[in-house]
Amino acid sequence: MSEFKANLDIRHRAGHIWRNIFRASTVFGILALIVLLLNIANSAFGYVAIENDINPADLAINSIPIEQLHQVDLVWILEQNVSAGLFRRLESEMPWEERAREEIYDLVVERVVNPQVVHTWPLGGSLFHRAEIQAEVAAKFPGATLEFRSWLTGDFLTTPQSPEADRAGVRTAILGSGWTIAITILFAFPLGVGAAIYLEEYASDNRLNRVIQTNINNLAGVPSIIYGMLGLAIFVRALEPFTSGAIFGAVDDTATASGRTIISAGMTLGLLILPLIIINAQEAIKAVSNSLRQASYGMGATRWQTVWHHVLPNAISGILTGTILAISRAIGETAPLVVVGASTFITFDPEGPFSKFTTLPIQIYQWTARPQAEFRNIAAAAILVLLAMLLSMNAAAVVLRNRYNRKI
Amino acid sequence: MTQQIEIPSPSTTTIEAGYNRTNDLRKRRRLGETVIQTLLFLAGGISILTTVGIVYELSKESVHFLSQVSLIEFFTHAKWNPQLGNFGILPLLNATLMTSTTAMLVALPMGLSIAIYLSEYATPKASSILKPILEVLAGIPTVVYGYFALTFMTPLLRSVLGKDVVEIYNTASAGIVIGILIIPMVSSMSEDALSAVPRALREASYGLGATKLETAIKVVLPAAISGIVAAFIVAISRAIGETMIVAIAAGAGPNLTFNPFLPAETMTGHIVRISGGDLSYNSIDYNSIFAIGLFLFFITLSLNIISQRVVRRFREVYE
Fold first, then answer.
1. Is A225–B25 a contact, with Cβ atoms under 8 angstroms apart?
2. Any residues with CB less than 8 A from the CB of A316 and at least 6 apart, and which?
3. Which residues pair with A119 in a beta bridge?
4. Pairwise CB contact (< 8 Å): A222 & B248
């Protein structure tokens, strides 16, 4: 009996230990998510040391700071401080009288004051070691001012790419992502839902249809980079006259007549998420109760009438939710777009499906790959923008689902 | 759907036959219905075209490549250096295996532990909170994980193991982060398999005096093993095909090394780096990435097919 008792204790102790191991793994998974998010926030905010070529206080005229100076005075400051050639060039681009005061003020800041970030600190250090940072700035960068900066600002969202980290923004990338995803949806949604309807409502259980079904399941497991290579071979090269817009006469200077355009990118992502949309839509269609179909046939409806008026309205919330989730996968995709040929540096807004493109994840990739610390900071800010986009997509999926569920 | 067409008996009058012809709806061919059905079939057929397209395009360029480099050299040469005409996939394959193995060492035990915890230990309320959080982890774009690997995992490894041991770009940090990326996938697929095991088995085990752990490990786990193995295989396939994390954190330049703290370029990383640069079509560089792509496609496809087979062959079916 005592032997049995001892054995029981061992068994219980083992159970206790393993229970804690299982729990610790779960905690680790959640901790990983928290650390990931904190790591991004750590880089997206923090102290920066800024050095100016000229102290803005020195530019004040009659002790009026430059923020409040009149347009004419700002032009005068520009004339005094920049080279004559640059001054004439700026004037020939647009005469001073026609420019807004804010624009000239920005020029003064950019060309004359020229603030440069000489060092950055992460958020963690900025919060907990403020005194040390201040001492470090005083010792290493005597001319610099220390300020707390959020790299994610309104300007960051609305300015295009720039070779300098503190003037770069994600405007081009956001618009590029928007255009690309629009093409992806237009391409993949009708095809995906159509295929799902075919497989669920029309296909009889024959060899061809089983092959289609197995094939879709396998396609969902193909690495995304392979889709990028498919897009490169088919959309960029083989269909170049179409994807460059040449056959529509849409080629202009910005499009540079190659197939590396938004439409190629969008269709590549479309092929990538097509299996996901089909599988999700199939699940939604399967969930529609069979009695609805029987009732519809009983009333003399044809097959398409049954699908259109009864099956789809009941499945639509599931289909839309699945599609939104598939699209949020597409928004975050990077590798296939690098292969298809995203542009490394463009500063102009995309004008249509035949423009060159860059997208938000591509921008993050390029900034992360740079060695300078400031680019890490703006990469983190861009990640926050991307995550906010994904979060709002998922929120939209939840809202849509709830609304449709209530109606039916 | 089979339709029975009623053949009018010879005795019916011509008037009746005419009446039947115009009003028997089953006999009327509906053009609209046929068109719609054809369109829907074509939509389903796109997926076949995609597969055919992948195989055709990858093979086409690979054939160009293999006309210049022999298959034996491709699989046995220990150097990949296009400038010098060395095309041996071993360094790239080795790096891929290093990152995937590291990833599996993280993802498989973690994912399985989480699955067991969620399905056997956690209260329904706790798992309804924990599962969506893990799903968030799965929904984060891989480029963000790449950033995480480079700016968090690498500095962490370097501060723990020493800066002279761990290089800035290394396969270990990329592999660990791929592992974290895959944890939710392993855990949710395994948990589905564990939850599908009928409650009666657990009750029987408890009835014989087994503890919770013994029930979970010796009864539930073996019953769900086909689903768990399938999850593992799909996870391996995912790790091999993972691109952005290795492109950012594992380093550029093929390097045949077994040291996980040195930089080495994987197959996917190489494809991204080569195609991200200025690439001229019909060059051997261009052809070579398609050969790598075809190899990659076959590896992942075989793994996926194996995983489906495993589920079908070894699934325990309960009434």
1. no
2. A284, A404
3. A49
4. no
In a domain, B300, yes or no: yes
Q: What local confidence, expressed as pLDDT, does residue A255 receive?
A: 47
Answer yes or no: is pLDDT of A222 > 70: yes
Interface of B with A in 76-95 (CB under 8 A): none
Tell me which residue range forms the domain holding B100.
Answer: 80-198+225-314
User: Percent of chain A at pLDDT above 70?
Assistant: 96
Q: Cβ separation of B275 and A339 shorter than 8 Å?
A: yes
CB contacts, 8 Å: A368 with chain B: 143, 146-147, 150-151, 248
CB contact at 8 A, B38 and A205: no
Check CB contact of A41 with chain B, cutoff 8 Å: no
**Residue at token pair 């993050």:** A364
- Report the CATH number at residue B128: 1.10.3720.10
- Interface touch B143/A365, C-beta < 8 Å: yes
Taking residue A333's Cβ as centre, other Cβ atoms within 10 Å add up to 28
Residue A346 pLDDT greater than 90, yes or no? no
State whether residue B306 sits within 8 Å of chain A by CB: no
Q: Beta strand A45-51 with B86-87: parallel, antiparallel or unpaired? A: unpaired
- The answer for A 137-196 residues in CB contact with B (under 8 A) is 190-192, 194-195
Domain residue spans in chain A?
47-150, 171-407
Q: Do B268 and A223 touch (CB under 8 A)?
A: yes
How many domains are contained in chain B? 1
Instruction: Read off the DSSP letter of residue A61.
Output: B
pLDDT at B319 over 70: no
Q: What is the CATH number of domain A171-407?
A: 1.10.3720.10
What local confidence, expressed as pLDDT, does residue A93 receive?
78
List of chain A residues whose C-beta atoms are within 8 Å of the C-beta of residue B25: 300
The predicted pLDDT at position B170 comes to 92
State the pLDDT at residue B14.
45
Please check whether residue B174 lies inside any domain of the structure: yes
Report the pLDDT value the prediction gives residue A122, as an integer from 0 to 100: 85
pLDDT-derived band at B25, boundaries 50, 70, 90 = low
Alpha helical stretches, state H, B82-197? 90-116, 124-139, 142-148, 154-161, 171-195
| Contact state of B147 with A15 under an 8 Å Cβ cutoff | no
